[in-house]
Write a structure and sequence with these properties.
Number of strands: 10
Shape: globular
Strand order of the largest sheet: 1-2-3-5-7-10
Radius of gyration: 19 Å
Order of helices and strands: EEHEEHEEHEEHHEHEHHHH
Strand content: 15-25%
Length: about 270
């Protein structure tokens, strides 16, 4: 894969989302660097297509999401909204597509690592929180400005943020909308790890490679159950775990994992 160790260079291509592959890791790069990767309908639609294709591609085990240039994404393109927000059918399409992107990030079968190489604000931070792991530049600026702008958060932030920091802290971050740094995000548990900006993609790719070496069917069950299990009755959570375990006992990957353990070698998981 070319350009997998820097945040997508200058992002000179006209595509709203760049794609690159390193082994089993699919890297998706938000590509509006001249607007600090502010989100618009084209970007959301391009990202939705890329995520759907990655989720159905058996060769992809993990997705890394990052931004071209010096920002991850500063959220809604307020300059474009200067003449007024989208109206009618276009407004509904924008909102539904944004939610669809976050639903794909959260509910797809593949782990997602957000490589937050720079500022992540509003809709940009929502996408980062929809990932399973967030690696963030320690000096990046993060913020939820929506309430201060008379709009509202999206992308499931009403639960993805509270899952990480608790309800009281989520209220503070959303109600007040004040900036916090990447380093503070890691301290609070918003991010998995904060590192210097130049190391974000490298650390994210290393994490992605570690995830890609795990059993993909087992990871898919883990992703499907770990978050929702907190909101379902215990009996249901136990039953769904048992269903997963019973299914996995019959797979080739389970037999391979046991054989690799006894033979003291790395397992060759194939997702079957």
């Amino acid at each position: 894969m070319s350009n997998a160790t820097s945040p997508a260079g200058s992002g000179s291509s006209g595509e709203p989302v760049l794609r690159a592959r390193e082994g089993a890791v699919q890297v998706l790069t938000l590509n509006r660097p001249q607007r600090l990767n502010a989100v618009n309908l084209d970007l959301y639609e391009g990202l939705a297509r890329a995520l759907e294709e990655a989720d159905t591609d058996p060769e992809v085990r993990v997705v890394v999401l990052t931004g071209a240039g010096r920002a991850f994404s500063v959220g809604a393109d307020l300059k474009a909204h200067g003449a007024g927000p989208p109206e009618g059918a276009l407004r509904r399409r924008y909102v539904e597509t944004a939610q669809r992107v976050n639903r794909l990030l959260q509910l797809g079968s593949k782990p997602v690592v957000a490589a937050v190489n720079g500022h992540a604000i509003g809709g940009g931070l929502e996408m980062a929180l929809s990932a399973d792991f967030m690696v963030v530049a320690d000096d990046a600026k993060l913020r939820f400005p929506e309430v201060s702008l008379g709009t509202f958060v999206g992308g499931g932030v009403v639960y993805t943020l509270a899952e990480r920091v608790g309800v009281a802290k989520a209220r503070e971050l959303i109600y007040l909308g004040e900036f916090f740094s990447g380093a503070e995000a890691a301290e609070m548990g918003v991010a998995w790890k904060a590192v210097p900006a130049g190391e974000v993609l490298e650390v994210s790719m290393e994490l992605a490679r570690r995830l890609a070496a795990k059993a993909p069917l087992s990871l898919a069950y883990a992703k499907r159950l770990i978050g929702p299990a907190g909101t379902m009755p215990r009996d249901e959570a136990l039953a769904r775990e048992a269903e997963a375990l019973e299914h996995l006992f019959g797979t080739r990957d389970w037999a391979e994992g046991v054989a690799a353990f006894h033979e003291k070698r790395a397992a060759d998981f194939r997702g079957v």
